Every structure is written in C-alpha cells, then in structure tokens.
Amino acid sequence: MYLTRRQFHKLGLLGGSALLLPRSMTGGALSGSGSTNPLNQRLASPPVEPFTRPLIIPPVLAPEYSNDALDFYRVTMQQAEVEIIPGTMTTIWGYNGLYPGPTIRARSGRPVVVRQENRLPESMSVHLHGGHTPPSSDGHPYDLIAPGADKDYDYPNNQIPTTLWYHDHAVDATGRHVYMGLAGFYIMTDDYEDSLPLPKGDNDVPLMIQDRRFNANGSLNYSLTDRAILEGVLGDTILVNGVVQPYHEVGTRKVRFRILNGSNARAYRLALSSGQRLIQIGSDGGLLSRPVSRASIFVSPAERIDVVIDFSGYPLGTRVVLRDINEDETSLGNVLEFRVVREESDDSSVPETLRYVDLIPESSATTTRTFTLDERVINGRTLFTINGRLFDPTYVDARPRLNDVEIWKFVNTTSEYQLHPIHIHDIEWQILDINGQRPAAGDDGWKDVFTVRGLSTVRVIGRFTDLTGIYVFHCHKLEHEDHAMMAQFEVLPAKD
Ligand code: C2O
Ligand code: CU
Ligand code: CU
Predict the structure, then answer these.
(1) 314: CA distance to ligand 2 center in Å?
(2) Model confidence over 292-349: pLDDT tens digits?
(3) CB-ligand 1 contact for 302 (6 Å cutoff)
(4) Does the beta carbon of 128 lie inside 6 Å of ligand 1?
(5) pTM for the full predicted model
(6) Separation of CA 452 and ligand 2 centre (Å)
(7) Does residue 27 have a pLDDT over 60?
(8) 480 CB within 6 A, ligand 1
(9) Do 90 and 181 belong to one domain?
(10) Same domain, 87 and 137
(11) Per the count of CB atoms within 10 A, which of 44, 211, 312, 457 is most buried?
C-alpha cells in the first residue's frame, strides 16, 4: 500500500504537483476521527424530529461555457458550514461548498469537461461512478489533486444514459472524504429517454440516502475504530440530500425518484409504509427492459434504483413514508415522508417497454475469472481482501482485451453476515446468477455494483468496449475500500 514517490511516478499516475498525505492525517474539521475515547463513537447524535424539514433538491450546475464540442463545468472543492442539526452548524467538505454537490446534467454522446479545483487541505481524486471514462479521468485513487491544484476531467459520455454520481476517491481517505460531503449527482439522458412519457422536470427527483453520526456541537463524527473498519462506519441519523429525514410534498400523480444509496457502509431495504409497491424502471447502468413492480428493493452502498411512485390513489393530506425495513429502530427506519398536498393532472405514464437490455449470452464469454473475497489477519489486524491481497497499485489482477466478453465470479468467503458490494469501474455488467439462481427482476439490468452476501457467489458478465488502460474494482463499503479491499484490471488493445 505504501509506495515511494518514484513508484507512483513509474505508474504514471501522479502529476508533478500531486501531494500524498499519510493515512493518519485527518481533517481538522472532523472530530471523532482518531479520537482516543473509545466511547465517543457510541454517543448518539442530537435527536432531530423526523419530517420537520423539507427535502432539498441539489441545484443543477450551469456550464461555464458550451460549444459545439462540449460543456465545460468548473467545480471547487471547499469547506462550508451548513445547518443540518437544527441550532448547530456542521462543517462539511463539498463540491462548490454544497452537500450534496450540485447536479451535473449530461447527454449521451455529448462530452463534458469538469475542472475540479481542490481548495481543501488534503489531496483529492474525483471519480464519476457509473461513467465509461478514460483511465486518466477516472479518479484513480493515486491520481490525486493536491491542495490548491486543479484537474480537468474528461467525460465522453459515450454510454447508455443513467443516474451517475461523482464522489471522492482518494487513496485511503475516500470514506472520510465522502462522509464529509464530497458526493453529487451526474444525471445523463438522451433523446430516446426524453421521448418516453416518464415523469419529467420537477417530477424527476434525485434522492441521495446517507447515514451519519453527529457530535453534540453538530460536527460530523467519523470514528474509524478497528470495529468500524470491519463493519464500515455506520451513522445513527438518516439524511436524504443532506437533510435529516425530510418531507417532500407531491401532487396526486406519478413521480420518478432516482435513488442512490450514498452511504459509506449501510444497506437499505426500501419500501413504502402504505404497502404500495415501487415501480422500478432502472438500475445502476440505465433503464430496465420493462418496469418491475416490487414490494421492497434492497440497495447496497453505491447502488442506484430508478423508481416511479404513483400518488394518484391517495386522498389529499395522506402521508406515505419511504422506509428502510432492514431496521426496526424507528429513528433509522424512516427515510423520507411524502405528503400528498395538491390535486394534479398527470400526463406521464410508465411504458411497458423502457430500453431494451440485450442480455449478453454466457456463451460469448472468452474468459471466466474468479475473485475470492476473504478475511485475512495482516500485521495483527483483520482486513478484507480480494484474492488474498490488499490493494497494490503496482499489481494488476486481470488483463482483459478490448471487445472481449468476460465472466467475473465473486466468491464471498468472509462470513455469513459480511456483505460486500463489489463495484467495477469502466463498464456496465449484467448479473448472470447469485448462488446459481437468476437475479430478481429489476436486478437483471445494467449494473456496476453487485451485492455479494456472506458465503455467496455472484457471477457477472460484461464486455470491455472503447477504452483501454488501468481501472480499479473494489468493495464499496468505503471503509473496506480504504483498507484496502481493492484491485486493478487493465484493458489491453484488441487482438487483431
Ligand atoms: Cu463509487 Cu470506485 O467508486
Ligand atoms: Cu465507479
Ligand atoms: Cu466489503
């Protein structure tokens, strides 16, 4: 994990100005981190009455300029004070000082350049999660932007449109940086999707669900104990788009929600308190072939689900709660309250055919690779590994060729209770099977995060297109990723 600067340069990952900070360096703004008081982490956050504050929709960022070729955006990573716990101020690190960051709206096939300016005291790397992005713009954990430096990220957007998100990806510090607020939506669409009669505009709502723990003074408490390294840092307060358990007013109509589990380590099983089913229209990598009605949907860290909820059947004044039915504790179980407050006509609908997902035949695969997720004691500390090794940026686990179809098999041997949401950069995949069974409808579309439950095996299939070079794949429990459950693959040019 620890490399000399010479080794970094050999990898070609560092610009001349990049600065590496030791793992032990913590943000001055974050208390609880590195605390010597073992009880500190167990102090409950100041209680907030649920459903007392309205949902905030992150603002859509305007490009600094647009020309025939691209849209250019400028984003500054900076510290800010925001009121999250009423009566206290929380120091956050945010894109443009916002938590969540501003939403970037993109179109398939139209390139975007984002200039990221790091005005924070630590090195950062920005990853567009779900993006089919060249390695030099993919936010490799060692491709750092030093404090005071800038980097232009090129996003060709040459892919099926979907709900993406951008977040920090700095080596060893991703969990803390994201916890501090460094995450935002990047929503891509295209003419075909625009032509579908799905809810649009104000009725197309992104929801970033996260859990956090706060100190009495409102500061974020990121307590990285040995136990938290194993279980992930779990908060005791649920936020949606940076607001604790908000309410959201809706009309008697259908509304589309692009739900992202932006939590460091908590998984949710989402359901409506009314018993109404969720109509799922999309997964991580785009729309499904057809809508799927589901009583509840399990979302691991970094997964996205695109759902439509029809509020037309409810009398005015009805309140429906989006709940996490994984949790019995009421404080955590309540995510967001919908309030049906106005009569509204609805010209939207959910078409029977969305975007055809062409299933990649198993027979087209040239290679099957097996990755074991295991638990190792390394230097006296229990850590999770991929194929028995911690992340080593000089080591490449797999070298697929461009245009090849491969099957990757993830075998979780860690423990019955240890779920690992595995995320692969670069391309979108399809789940072939989970313990030999086809995935549930809704989980069978394009995916870049796969829930690999304890003692389970998940096989995924994907085709490496357009781009060559080195990418990472890793567990998206961010404390696992940082401690260094991550590996690399290199897409080689096609054989001719
Ligand atoms: Cu969402 Cu490699 O991360
Ligand atoms: Cu990613
Ligand atoms: Cu993990």
Answers:
(1) 38
(2) 999 999 999 999 999 999 999 999 999 999 999 987 656 789 999 999 999 999 999 9
(3) yes
(4) no
(5) 0.92
(6) 17
(7) no
(8) no
(9) yes
(10) yes
(11) 211
* Domain-terminating residue out of 163, 195, 227: 195
pLDDT value at residue 328: 65
What pLDDT shows up at residue 359? 96
**Residues in a beta bridge with 155:** 112
Same domain flag for 70 and 138: yes
What are the tens digits of pLDDT across the range 173-201?
A: 999 999 999 999 999 999 999 999 999 99
Q: Are 194 and 244 in contact (CB under 8 A)?
A: no
Three-state SS annotation for the chain: CCCCHHHHHHHCCCCCCCCCCCCCCCCCCCECCCCCCCCHHHCCCCCCCCCCCECCCCCECCCCEECCCCEEEEEEEEEEEECCCCCCCEEEEEECCECCCCEEEEECCCCEEEEEEECCCCCECEEEECCCCCHHHCCCCCCCECCCCEEEEEECCCCCCCEEEEEECCCCCHHHHHHCCCEEEEEEECHHHHHCCCCCHHHEEEEEEEEECECCCCCEECCCCHHHHHHCCCCCEEEECCEECCEEEEECCEEEEEEEECCCCCCEEEEECCCCCEEEEEECCEEEEEEEEECCEEECCCCEEEEEEECCCCCCCCEEEEEECCCCCHHHHEEEEEEEEECCCCCCCCCCCCCCCCCCCHHHEEEEEEEEEEEEEECCEEEEEECCECCCCCCCCECCECCCEEEEEEEECCCCCCCEEEEECCCCEEEEEECCECCCCCCCCCECEEEECCCCEEEEEEECCCCCEEEEEEECCHHHHHCCCEEEEEEECCCC
Ligand 3 mean position, distance from CA 375 (Å): 10
Among protein residues, the one with the nearest Cα to ligand 1's atom 3 is: 129
Q: How far is the CA of 98 from the centre of ligand 1 (A)?
A: 20
Q: Whose CA is nearest to atom 1 of ligand 1?
A: 129
Is 453 close to ligand 1, i.e. is its CB under 6 Å away?
Answer: no
Distance CA 183, CA 207 (A): 12
Q: Do 303 and 382 share a domain, yes or no?
A: no
Dihedral, CA of residue 370, residue 376, residue 379 and residue 380, to nearest 10? 170
